[in-house]
Request: fold
Amino acid sequence: MISFPGNFKTRMQNLLGKDEWNDFAEALQQAPPVSIRYNRHKNAAPQDADKVAWCAMGRYLTTRPAFTLDPLLHAGAYYVQEASSMFLEQAAVLWRGQTGLRFLDLCAAPGGKSTHLADLTPAGSMLVSNEVIRSRTAALSENLTKWGNPNTVITHNDPKDFASLPDFFDVMLIDAPCSGEGLFRKEPAAVEAWSEAHVKHCAERQRRIVSDAWDALKEEGLLLYSTCTYNREENENNIRWMTQQLGAEVVHIPLQAAWNITTNEYGYRFFPHKTKGEGFFISLLRKKGRSLSSASPMSSPPKPFSRGERGGFLPSLSGEGPGVRTAPAWLNGDFTFVREGFYIYALPDYLVHDVFHLQQHLRFLQAGVKVGEVKGAGVVPAAALALSAALRNDAFPCADVDLATALRFLRREALALPHIEKGYCIIRYQHLPLGFVKNIGARSNNLHPPAWRIRMNI
Ligand code: SAM
Reply:
């Protein structure tokens, strides 16, 4: 039973009306629905489950399984995400038919909406997924790596750092830190942290975040602004402020009446007594100005990675590495290989120019596909390579394993694979790669990243 803090009830009654408040309060006493969103690029057939009406790959589950013990989660086959947030997908109609767009997810960790956006980016596009709080970047990096879209760049910057990239992004998502009223039934900590002062603080911080990043949006570019809270201060009032102070205009997202989403001139609100999901608010805005095509070009020519060399490592890969094939045979598509310290990354060719430009302005955590680490004369392949949606099926020998063996792999235990040739081998579960082992005959060394190891008792 949730005990509502302070005058939250009065405020919600003002928003909803007293009759609807009872339905709302009752919904909050129910268990939250469980939903997942499948990865478009990993060929995991959606289960025979109820669809999330506004998201093609979204499904409700009837029970909450022990997700940690499902290898398909670790393979990036799906992401566990509450359903209301998946409405983001409906905005994609605004960029349908376009190619080569630049997306920024400014407040991205742990990566729910970034993994979704990665699926919604049209051909030739880039997604910059940014998180300012360092301790939250590990989860972001793990989730995006497992999702496997090679067009993603992960950065660790304050929103104001993006001011040095004027007119750069076509689409910006600001899923702002908020007072979390929409999470009350899932996160008791959100109930405890709530106060009117906190709402006011969040609303001011949201305006600061939006205004800090605003210049980086192209004129005619789109801003998706969202929160998981109900109050007007953090939602409608902020949207009105964006229209009055920043010259934004609200853009309509087509809706179906059956979805039961509450809408007004500023955006779309999800209430748990009306839609099957948690509390959520989203608005789509356009930056008024010149047309997209007339936006200014990039300010300076690209420069290579500061500490590395562009493509220079390739000759050393084509020799007698420890069981690896030449780099170009590993990935589908056209990639440029770059070296950063001891690590090698593969960037889709169309991304190279932008990545080198961005690197002069932002703190990079990773870009494209992390291919591996240079050790001696060879390269030890990285987990990210196995998990990349661009990996060629025939790039490495594969071992298809059962559930028990997959879980042993994910716990970083050594596996015995006597029937597989020696060298680097991909462990697959239900045909989806989980990562690498190095098979040395009697046993194999497990190359699953230590930080990703399952620690839960099985
Ligand atoms: N978009 C994420 C997702 O779908 O998984 C959830 C983002 S969460 C609502 C808000 C994020 O904003 C958090 O990752 C938090 O660390 C970050 N954040 C907190 N303070 C911030 C600030 N002052 N500027 C930018 N981001 C901030």
